[in-house]
């Protein structure tokens, strides 16, 4: 079975993580992704081979100097025979290189142009790396122990989230049957992901606060707990979960969510004492058959060893595979391309002018 995006051609002028991640997800689903790289290659090639491989499998590479007339002319030829172009750069560079819909519509009225920036295509050129955006949008301020400094997660949450949003926007505009500009910023994506936190402040004036052990602001108990050996994540979101957990842990009282929330400190004290009597691994084994959301804290190597079905091979590299499972379709994981491996002379024309799927 061919991929659900077979026949869709996407051009990528992407750097580092956010843009390449977006197009890799689409390539895994069968889209033809042509990575347009400058002379010398996209900068993430300098980070390391495994880094580049983790974000650029299943793509083709064409080297173009978009600062030259010849490079822009060749880009136009590709745009004329493509469905979409995705770029993540500073707004001034996107406009200067002619990577907007207004600049490219002369080649293809139905081209979808996705701009991924820090603060929007008209939001200026202030540097907008992942950690900077987490700091600027309140994510860092609400993360970490309340007695310590703000904390950043151990991975690029803003870049990855923006890649997902950009891929969604790109596909939505293709399905619409219209060309046009799609504008996705890291700042806006991270703010949108603070949904219920932002709503609590906007509607009730409740500014988010940090709780020890990453505790949830609404649900109790829902946080990390130390055990006799290891750390356990326990997430009790409704009374049925609590009833089953309390029976297994030998805890009495606090039967309703309202009571547990009103007596947060007391509840956490009795739960902490109960969980200290056994190991995190044992609690996971005991509680999971009861349907209770629980997991022992694992390292990344341990998590990968526990999910071998998510590890795939692309060329010389073992990578985490696509998270999107479609019945009857299995991605063919091809290695990330060498610089200009496919060249313009090796890019096949699409059978007909790029058509949009029926809505």
Automatic annotation (TrEMBL):
Name any one Pfam family assigned in the record: CoA_transf_3
Q: Which GO terms describe its molecular function?
A: CoA-transferase activity
Transmembrane residue ranges:
none
Q: Which UniProt keywords apply?
A: Transferase
Q: Quick one: where's region Disordered?
A: 337-359
Recorded hits in Gene3D superfamilies, A to Z, give:
Crotonobetainyl-coa:carnitine coa-transferase, domain 1 (3.40.50.10540), formyl-coa transferase, domain 3 (3.30.1540.10)
Q: Does the keyword Lipid metabolism apply?
A: no
Q: What is the lineage of its organism?
A: Bacteria, Bacillati, Actinomycetota, Actinomycetes, Mycobacteriales
Protein known as:
Crotonobetainyl-CoA:carnitine CoA-transferase CaiB-like acyl-CoA transferase
């Amino acid at each position: 079975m061919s991929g659900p995006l077979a026949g869709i051609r996407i051009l990528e002028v992407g750097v580092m993580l956010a843009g390449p991640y977006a197009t890799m997800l689409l390539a895994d689903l069968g889209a033809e992704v042509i990575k347009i790289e400058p002379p010398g290659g996209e900068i993430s090639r300098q980070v390391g081979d495994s880094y580049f491989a983790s974000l650029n499998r299943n793509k083709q590479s064409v080297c173009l100097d978009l600062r030259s007339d010849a490079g822009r002319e060749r880009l136009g030829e590709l745009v004329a025979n493509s469905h979409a172009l995705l770029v993540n750069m500073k707004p001034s560079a996107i406009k200067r290189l002619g990577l907007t819909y207004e600049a490219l519509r002369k080649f293809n009225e139905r081209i979808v142009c996705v701009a991924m920036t820090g603060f929007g295509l008209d939001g200026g050129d202030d540097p907008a790396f992942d950690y900077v955006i987490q700091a600027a949008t309140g994510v860092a301020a609400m993360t970490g122990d309340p007695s310590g400094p703000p904390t950043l997660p151990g991975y690029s949450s803003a870049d990855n989230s923006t890649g997902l949003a950009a891929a969604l926007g790109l596909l939505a505009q293709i399905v619409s049957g219209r060309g046009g500009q799609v504008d996705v910023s890291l700042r806006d994506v991270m703010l949108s992901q603070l949904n219920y936190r932002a709503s609590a402040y906007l509607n009730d004036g409740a500014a988010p606060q940090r709780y020890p052990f990453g505790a949830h602001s609404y649900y109790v108990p829902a946080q990390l707990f130390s055990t006799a050996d290891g750390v356990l994540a326990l997430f009790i979101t409704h009374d049925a979960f609590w009833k089953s957990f309390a029976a297994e842990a030998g805890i009495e009282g606090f039967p309703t969510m309202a009571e547990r929330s009103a007596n947060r400190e007391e509840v956490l004290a009795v739960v902490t004492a109960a969980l200290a009597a056994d190991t995190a691994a044992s609690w996971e084994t005991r509680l999971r058959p009861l349907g209770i959301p629980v997991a022992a804290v694992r390292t990344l190597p341990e998590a990968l060893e526990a999910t071998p079905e998510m590890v795939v091979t692309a060329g010389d590299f073992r990578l985490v595979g696509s998270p999107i499972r479609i019945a009857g379709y299995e991605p063919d994981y091809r290695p990330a391309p060498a610089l200009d491996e496919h060249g313009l002379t090796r890019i096949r024309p699409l059978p007909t002018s790029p058509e949009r799927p029926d809505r």
